[in-house]
């Protein structure tokens, strides 16, 4: 079964954000493949570190955008990001303690979470940002 497949159905109609989502899916798929191949903690650790860095960078980007447009659902959206930050930190700790199997749970959870988050939470944010930009462009012209 292939996980972390980005398709147009996941688009939030903000090209930069879509590109970052595709990047996260690529690292997620890499982690999944390493797990399927029986990856040991030493092999999984650098992929997890990459994932954590890319996820955090992406979340901070969205959080900056939401602040700029005074997005009302900022706290709700950020809480969802924080749940994943916490989950990733926990998994990294477990892998550092020699537990490679914990990645199986993370991969399944993250695959479902990312699909749901992109198609609901991020899409709502995308619609708000596009409306904000349209409105402000119309005011400026
Ligand atoms: Fe998000
Ligand atoms: Fe996102």
Description of the structure:
The structure is a single chain. The protein is an all-alpha fold. The chain has a single domain, classed as Up-down Bundle (Four Helix Bundle (Hemerythrin (Met), subunit A)), CATH 1.20.120.50. The protein has helices spanning 15-36, 41-68, 74-96, 102-140. Helix 1 (15-36) packs antiparallel against helix 2. The mean pLDDT is 96. Bound molecules: fe (ii) ion (2 copies). One fe (ii) ion binds at residues 62, 77, 81, 117, 121-122.
Key attributes of the depicted protein:
141 residues; 0% strand; 79% helix; binds fe (ii) ion
List the helices and strands and how they pair.
Blueprint lengths: L14 H22 L4 H28 L5 H23 L5 H39 L1
Helix pairs in contact: 1-2, 1-4, 2-3, 3-4
Bound molecules: fe (ii) ion (FE2) (2 copies).
- Please tally the helical runs, counting DSSP H or I stretches of 4 or more residues: 4
Which CATH architecture? Up-down Bundle
Assign an overall shape. elongated
Written as H for each helix and E for each strand, in order along the chain, the element string is HHHH
The span between the termini is 50 Å
* Number of beta strands: 0
Question: What's the name of the CATH homologous superfamily?
Answer: Hemerythrin-like
Assembly annotation: single chain
Structural class: mainly alpha
Helix proportion of residues, in percent? over 70%
Q: Could you tell me the strand content as a percent range?
A: under 5%
- Main sheet makeup: none
| Arithmetic mean of pLDDT | 96
Low-confidence blocks of residues? none
Ligand types? fe (ii) ion
């Amino acid at each position: 079964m292939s996980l972390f497949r980005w398709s147009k159905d996941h688009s939030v109609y903000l090209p930069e954000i879509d590109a970052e989502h595709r990047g996260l899916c690529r690292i997620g798929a890499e982690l999944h493949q390493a797990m399927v191949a029986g990856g040991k903690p030493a092999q999984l650790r650098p992929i997890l570190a990459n994932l954590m860095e890319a996820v955090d960078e992406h979340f901070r980007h969205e959080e900056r955008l939401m602040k700029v447009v005074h997005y009302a659902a900022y706290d709700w959206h950020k809480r969802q990001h924080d749940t994943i930050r916490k989950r990733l930190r926990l998994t990294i700790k477990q892998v550092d303690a020699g537990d490679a199997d914990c990645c199986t749970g993370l991969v399944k959870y993250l695959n479902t979470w990312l699909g749901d988050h992109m198609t609901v939470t991020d899409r709502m944010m995308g619609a708000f940002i596009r409306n904000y930009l349209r409105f402000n462009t119309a005011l400026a012209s």
